[in-house]
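Action item from last week, closing it out:
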Amino acid sequence: MSIVFPYQSLFIQALGGSKPMIGLITALGSATGMIFYPLGGYLADKSGRAKLVGYATLLYALSFGVFVMAPTWEWLAVAISVQQLVLFYMPALNAIMADSIPPGARGRILSLTVAIPEAVRILSPFLGGWLIEEYTLIPAMRLGYALSLGTALLVAAMRIRYLKETLEKQEFQWDIPRIFRESYSNVWGSVKWIFSNMRGYSVIAMMLIFIASLVQPFWVVYATEITGLTPLQWGQLSLVAGLAKVFMSLLVGGVVDRLGPRRCMAISILIGAPAMLAFPYAKGFVEMTLVYIVLVLGNAFIWISSGVYLANAIPRAVRGRIMAGMGQGVSLGISGGGYAQGFILFIPGVIGSVVSGFIYEMNPMYPWYLNVTVMALCLVMVLRLMREPDHVEV
């Protein structure tokens, strides 16, 4: 994904999509992804997690074929929607992660789940930029998506073969109408549990997802159109940022375990907000790279600390369904990837994506200004409304 995702907005433009359409396509994907998330959370808690993840990953892998052949931006909209739709396995994958990590070491181990994949894919954005420089945008993106298809098929095979179940085996009847009825009727129960047990975090997460969706599609667009970087330079920037992310993530995990996720979420905003404000003012490759590295540090803090907070707060028996609502964590909207979040977070994400292109067209700096304003409000809310759970769940 890291070969193609940083340049996906440029691909949409190259196939005829406008800037508002970039945001609308992103919103369409998020709205589509919300449809099956309650089903994924229900199955994760009732039928098991490992096989659901494995076979749904196979569907996700096959969706890359649509990107390879897409002749127009409308086909890309279909491809993004299909890809988000089959990501209903994410609550099960998030639950496996949380089940497998013991309390007290969650920050350090979650940091490894960031650092190790980042180390593996560290050259991917640079490779994407080099392919664009070498073959021009559209042929390079088709080649990149073909590589993604092959790699995703390998990942699906590995998950089917090697993932181990973390839920105690229980009798489960595959009555399809009953499954759909119960999974969607449980949504209201999940929402009530979330707002009864973690109201402060959930409101903060919704606000952060909204502002992240404003900037996420437009990092590379701003860098290439306004700052004047080439796609290859953006790939070089992503390479340097990826190196920084590997080392920063390893350091951040231990800090989260020592200070707790609430304090570290506040630290992430204190780091990220000034860098977010500085990004549209950065001139040239070096300045933009330095600002982006600081953003990567803030993003590492908030992703790991929010993931630890959720694992600590959600009981194992309902983890799949609650994570279907809240996802695995939140980010600052840094370009380069990110899976569908929980169905509660889809709504602000969709709204932010819908308006992002229109706000960007009004003034390319406005998304970053709005981001910083809301981050300042979130900092106050983290300090005033969030509480560490009284009991750490296993």
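Closing note: Residues 5-165+175-385 form a domain with the Growth Hormone; Chain: A; fold (CATH 1.20.1250.20).
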